[in-house]
Amino acid sequence: MPESPLEIQIKTLPHQPGVYQYFDVDERLIYVGKAKDIKKRVSSYFNKHHDYGKTRVLVKNIASVKHIVVETENDALLLENNLIKKYKPKYNVLLKDDKSYPWICIKKERFPRVFPTRRVIKDGSEYFGPYTSMKTVKTLLGLIKGLYQLRTCNYDLSESKIEAGKYKVCLEYHLGNCKGACEGYETEEEYQANIIAIREILKGNFKDSLQQFKIQMRQHAEAMQFEDAQKIKEKLEVLENYQAKSTIVNPKISNVDVFSIVSDETYAYVNFLQLSYGSIIRSHTLELKKKLQESDTDLLELAIIEIRQRFNSTSKEIYVPFKVNLGNDLKITVPKLGDKKSILDLSIRNAKYFRMDKFKQVKLVDPDRHANRIMAQMKADLRLSEEPRHIECFDNSNIQGTNPVAACVVFKNGKPSKKDYRHFNIKTVEGPDDFASMEEVVYRRYKRLLEEAQPLPQLIIIDGGKGQLSSALKSLDVLGLRGKIAIIGIAKRLEELFYPEDPIPLYLDKKSETLKIIQQLRNEAHRFGIEHHRNRRSKGALTTELENISGVGEQTIVDLMKQFKTVKRIANAKLDELEAVVGVSRANKVYNYYHKE
């Protein structure tokens, strides 16, 4: 059988680093990838079975392959990122953040203006940013305005026009916000000194400005110009106060980028902290939508390239939670302890908070998406064949061997469905036998569901270890449901999850949402079971004594309990109080029972 054009293309691919592109039959670009060895990587798509459905669909749709060879892996990363951003292929990670960010511009002109903008124009002006919020920009510009007197007009302040007296000072001059460069009241050298200081502040370096202001304050004080010295002192306080509000990490940690990642089945969140002169000057979190079960390493590498390009970062060192391959130009540090580890932990915390905020917003706007994500996560974590949309959890309660009961709680789409909760009084078991009790209630529950043609759950959770799980399995065997419903047991002590015929328990991450939902189910079943058990015990304790009274029936007991709430109050009640509730005859019988003497 002759080889297809695609097979021939794959055979002729080079063993070089670079980028490969997959096209469908309509010659649409559907996927872009990077590789150390293009031929090995592309061949792997066709040589092995893929567990993930979307990857199988991608491979099925590939009609042709193109490639671009580059010098290094780092070049491949950059090229991959640019192609994904430009063409947005169907099966590539989706960068969820494409808004335009604000910048602070120092205009290229005589007596430069400093102002916010969202448009970067290549006219030689300096742009600082981008900043992740306009609030930060306004705070910084407010600080600069309070420290330095800069012009706000857009006049062309050329030497010839100023000398010709083309302009007159405006209100800003009279308010003390500008020194009147338009009429030649301020020299270009003085103005440029302020611009140099502002440039350093925007870079996060407050040291030079603080030092300069302290020198000026001292000079004014020595010259007996106390009012001017006081004004400089106020500026110093403003600058020191702003610096104090910055997150100071460690003055020794300078010009470093920090990246961390938090991910789930469908989304990843990469946080970026930029450090300059010991302070955090920028924090940003990028949301990425997964398409093909990409690894955290691949996602983090892609995000680092994208974020550093977006924010024009030139830092030579980055802190990350695990090793990444970004070429030889960057120093990669994986902190283990100390201040470096603390700043990485702060980045991780920021990513987690961002993820939580997103979930809260989604719950409000699109509740189904939240449920779908959790169901997909549970299916993967618990190795299930289908999403556990309907889960039932069983728990036994028999305190000191009395009144044995069981509870079944039901969760649908990850939330309690209280109308479906059921209590069971143990009927066929004598004494405290948890295993036999579990066998009985599981049998009764699913026998009834089968008889009434009710929908069965996708997952059963048994509160207990291997013993209770085995008992529940016996009932499923009898009912012919073994293998039709997934069933697991959860042991209380170490949160071990047991599977049928698997001696080794599964341990989930203590912070995973799957474990939290299982714990919620277990706790809810325990609460519901204990509540029923207490009701039975208290009812038994209350009614036993009152039923001993000759001539007092169930309705009389109910009427008395409604009024007096406890047996003790009934025993201490006066005769006329009892008569008001149950009449003279029955009141006398109750009163005489408790006052025999």
Automatic annotation (TrEMBL):
Give start and end of each GIY-YIG domain: 15-93
UniProt keyword list: Cytoplasm, DNA damage, DNA excision, DNA repair, Excision nuclease, SOS response
Where in the cell is the protein located? Answer: Cytoplasm
Specify the protein name: UvrABC system protein C
Quaternary structure, per UniProt, is: Interacts with UvrB in an incision complex.
Q: Which Gene3D superfamilies match?
A: 5' to 3' exonuclease, C-terminal subdomain (1.10.150.20), GIY-YIG endonuclease (3.40.1440.10), UvrC, RNAse H endonuclease domain (3.30.420.340)
A Gene Ontology term for the protein's cellular component: excinuclease repair complex
What SUPFAM superfamilies would the database entry show?
C-terminal UvrC-binding domain of UvrB (SSF46600), GIY-YIG endonuclease (SSF82771), RuvA domain 2-like (SSF47781)
Please spell out the taxonomic lineage of the organism that makes this protein: Bacteria, Pseudomonadati, Bacteroidota, Flavobacteriia, Flavobacteriales
**Which stretches make up the UvrC family homology region profile domain?**
262-476
Q: Tell me which InterPro entries the record gives.
A: GIY-YIG_endonuc, GIY-YIG_endonuc_sf, GIY-YIG_UvrC_Cho, RuvA_2-like, UVR_dom_sf, UvrABC_protein_C, UvrC, UvrC_RNase_H_dom
The signal peptide annotation in the UniProt record is: none
* Gene Ontology terms for molecular function: DNA binding; excinuclease ABC activity
